[in-house]
Design goal:
Elements (H helix, E strand, L loop, with lengths): L2 H24 L2 E13 L6 E4 L8 H13 L5 E4 L20 E3 L5 E3 L2 H12 L3 E6 L37 H19 L1 H5 L2 E4 L12 H18 L4 E7 L7 H14 L14 E7 L3 E3 L2 E3 L3 H15 L9 E7 L20 H21 L3 E6 L17 E2 L2 E2 L1 H10 L4 E7 L5 H7 L7 E8 L3 E9 L9 E8 L4 E10 L6 H7 L8 H10 L3 E2 L4 E5 L4 E7 L4 E7 L1
Parallel strand pairs: 1-19, 2-3, 2-13, 3-6, 6-7, 7-8, 8-9, 9-12, 12-13
Antiparallel strand pairs: 1-16, 4-5, 10-11, 14-15, 16-17, 17-18, 18-24, 19-23, 20-21, 20-22, 20-24
Length: about 575
């Protein structure tokens, strides 16, 4: 064989390999949904959000985002924030906030000031939202280790720098109990008994790591006294915890089990009786992205495993099997305020990968709850917004400078899905066990769906997800719905990809301005809204079956809404 012939054969082989690759990418995925195959309620587990910095709540962009969250959900959105009892002047900063709710005079007498707490909760109530009210952190005057108290952490600093005097146990548990009593009593007087009865209260955050500088028994004692103050002010109030950080290496599940057993059979530190109030059980679950060969590689498996283990623990006690569960923080990774400049593995946050990850992971949360028969009430996306920070800095947030990011549009899609969830049969959807054990890193992308039906509509959320954030051409997806009412139906397709519902791509095309003009801001705001792909179309449903094919880019998400 001469050199010329060898090059020709090599070129032919290369073309064949490329052709095989394109065929594999273009192979049509199939999704089949039977409207009679109900699997459970399309409960709004997604309508829960949270963040570290409570003072953003009533600031300009914070109010704007909260209004968007309230508008997208048919049921009240729940908000969880840290630092509601932290001492300070109310200045907002990364991973910091304060309300100055509790101080003491020169004689050590408590002084209560509810102005900033009211500003936060007033904002929620006016928008029809519900506080998932966190009792924490420790006021400086009550802390056993009051100095240093205020931290000044910034991205790139040692994360351990944040754990200052607010993380310590109270020096006087009776004053701690009275603080909670006064807060709840004030809330009832301001918002009414019926309103406050509809809230869930929870104590602290991640006590199995450095957010709590005391022992496990000291945490149980602090919880018991908080519950005593709450119930003394409002006997019908609902409380729970322990909001542990997930992961076996952090001892989270061991802490969760010990906490449940204390609440069921332990001696109450505040009352001396057996047990402590427990109306909601909460724990956290996070993923673990990395940077591989210059691109982000997500890892959903640790998040799903922690959810599975938490569900199993709750289900293992007859007394708690039916208690509502809230995953108090449920995210692709751990630090919302760590931008991609300091943490390159967080570069997924601005674009569509955050959207497709959110769609694919929430679908699996429903499946995990179904498989273990637990009362799954909510999963808090620990993502909000950061005021006065660079545009698209790569924080884990839903909006930047009042401009909605692509991920927020997934929640707008969720808000349209009501009624009963439906069984999905998808040819390229990774099984739950595979996702939980190893993530989605196989040869094909995860093309899956979450489907629901109501009296006069059906909705199908479809995603094209893979752990590796690598661009690829769109893939055809054939969707078949059966047992539909015969007659005329209207189909609307919403889409999130690089051309639709994506303010980030528009911003980059502008040249990534850090000081966009008012006209550019208006354009970005429009690009941040959920957009349709084409116009609504009228279809004839024959013999109860409807079939349609869409093309979905990698990391894209679509919602098909069919009404009749």
């Amino acid at each position: 064989m001469n050199i010329k012939t060898g090059f020709a054969l090599l070129s032919l082989l290369t073309l064949l390999l490329k052709s095989q690759c394109i065929c594999a990418q273009q192979q049509t995925a199939t999704i089949n949904i039977d409207l009679n195959a109900e699997t459970g309620n399309m409960s709004p587990i997604w309508a829960w959000f949270g963040h570290d910095e409570p003072n953003y709540t009533y600031m300009k962009d914070g109010r704007k985002l909260l209004a968007h969250l309230a508008a997208l959900s048919p049921t009240p959105v729940h908000m969880r924030v840290h630092n509601l009892l932290t001492t300070g002047d109310g200045e907002a900063a990364l991973k910091w906030g304060s309300t100055n709710a509790y101080t003491e005079d020169a004689n050590g007498k408590p002084v209560y000031n509810w102005h900033l707490v009211d500003s936060i909760f007033d904002t929620y109530i006016k928008l029809g939202m519900k506080p998932y009210a966190q009792i924490g952190f420790m006021p400086q005057a009550l802390s056993t280790h009051p100095e240093p108290y205020r931290h000044h952490w910034k991205p790139g600093d040692d994360y351990n720098d944040i754990y200052t005097g607010w993380a310590y146990p109270p020096k006087d548990y009776n004053k701690w109990e009275e603080l909670v009593y006064q807060w709840v009593k004030h809330s009832v007087a301001r918002y009414g008994k019926k309103e406050v009865e509809s809230w869930y209260w929870e104590v602290w955050n991640e006590p199995n790591i450095s957010y709590w500088k005391g022992t496990m028994p000291e945490f149980f004692k602090m919880y018991d006294y908080a519950a005593q103050g709450l119930r003394r002010a409002l006997p019908t109030a609902k409380i729970g915890g322990p909001e542990i950080a997930g992961g076996s290496s952090q001892g989270g599940m061991r802490f969760l089990r010990a906490f449940i057993e204390h609440c069921l059979t332990g001696t109450n530190y505040a009352t001396g009786k057996t047990g402590s109030p427990l109306d909601v059980i909460s724990f956290h679950a996070k993923g673990q992205p990395t940077l591989v060969n210059g691109h982000v590689r997500m890892n959903m498996a640790p998040q799903m495993r922690d959810i599975r283990e938490g569900f199993k623990i709750v289900a293992s006690y007859p007394q708690t099997k039916n208690i509502p569960i809230v995953i108090g923080e449920s995210d692709p990774e751990g630090c919302a305020a760590c931008g991609m400049a300091t943490n390159p593995s967080n570069a997924y946050r601005n674009g569509t990968m955050y959207s497709s990850y959110t769609a694919a992971s929430f679908a699996r949360k429903y499946l995990l709850a179904d498989s273990l028969g637990v009362n799954f009430m909510g999963a808090v996306s620990w993502s909000f917004e950061f005021e006065n920070q660079p545009w698209f800095y790569g924080f884990r947030d839903l909006a930047t400078h009042g401009v909605d990011k692509p991920v927020l549009n997934v929640f707008r899609m969720f808000g349209m899905m009501q009624g009963k969830r439906l069984k999905v049969n998808a040819s390229q959807m990774y099984p739950l066990t595979a996702v939980t054990d190893s993530g989605m890193r196989g040869s094909h992308t995860d093309i899956g769906a979450l489907a629901a039906k109501d009296k006069k509509q059906a909705t199908v959320m479809v995603w094209n997800y893979h752990d590796d954030d690598v661009q690829a051409t769109g893939q055809p997806v054939n969707i078949t719905l059966s047992n539909l009412p015969t007659g005329t139906a209207t189909l609307v397709q919403y889409q999130i990809d690089n051309q639709h519902s994506n303010s980030y791509e528009v911003w980059k095309k502008m040249g990534s301005p850090q000081s966009p003009t008012p006209e550019q801001v208006k354009q970005l705001e429009q690009a941040g809204q959920l957009q349709t792909l084409g116009k609504p179309i009228k279809l004839q449903v024959k013999a109860g079956i409807l079939n349609t094919t869409i093309t979905l880019p990698r990391q894209g998400v679509a919602l098909l809404k069919l009404t009749w």
